[in-house]
Prior knowledge:
Blueprint: E1 6-11, E2 18-23, E3 26-32, H1 39-54, E4 63-67, H2 73-90, E5 94-97, H3 99-106, E6 110-120, E7 123-131, E8 137-139, E9 144-146, H4 148-155, E10 160-164, H5 166-170, H6 172-177, E11 183-186, H7 194-206, H8 230-233
Parallel strand pairs: 1-4, 4-5, 6-10, 10-11
Antiparallel strand pairs: 1-2, 2-3, 6-7, 7-8, 7-9
Helix pairs in contact: 1-2, 3-7
Amino acid sequence: MLPEPLILAVETATLAGSIAIARGEAVIGALSGDPAVSHSNTLLADLDRLLADTGIKLPEIDLFAVAVGPGSFTGLRIGIATVKALAATLARPCAAIPTLKTIALAGSASDASLALLPAGRGEVFAQLFSVSNDSTVTALDEPSHLAPQKLMDKYGSRKTLLWCGEGAIAQRELIENSSRGKQWRMAPKVENLARYVATLALAKLRNDQLVAADALQAIYVRPSDAELPAKQKA
Length: 234
């Protein structure tokens, strides 16, 4: 029997970010970042620390996985660039993992999991999934960028929902005010998303869905503030 692959997972889509190392399905080490400190200042140092803590040497890594968005524009670029460089140097394959899919998996099994991530200016990135007990995550619609009221216009009529992610926590008051007569639940806060990035990467490996380092691309969903017309920034 072949040994379980060693997976290094990086998630820099959120402000805090996180990293993890897994051997197959088992997470053997994980670190969460500080939302007040840029990933550019900490990611490489955190990777060195995690490798030292787990006793793993970088050339032992079989597969690199990274959350590719949506999320923080700067964070995504740092995380993807770092994984590209490491994987290209070591000639290892990569797994590109959508951030919202990761958030849905972290929220536990549900027929309807709405993954939300803050998108700035009080808005959110949102996508609906189903999550099975065996960690199969199926997208039920496409990722979107929504203002809070548009979020409720789109999903507020659903009778059952599991609200997941930092975006759900940020919109807790709106969700609670709109939940009358519905079976809505709030998933607990998850400190380390990278461990779920690793889980989804293992599934991609088993399904022959890996990519080369130079094929990694971010999923932005919306333009960055710098790319928006001036009237839309106001």
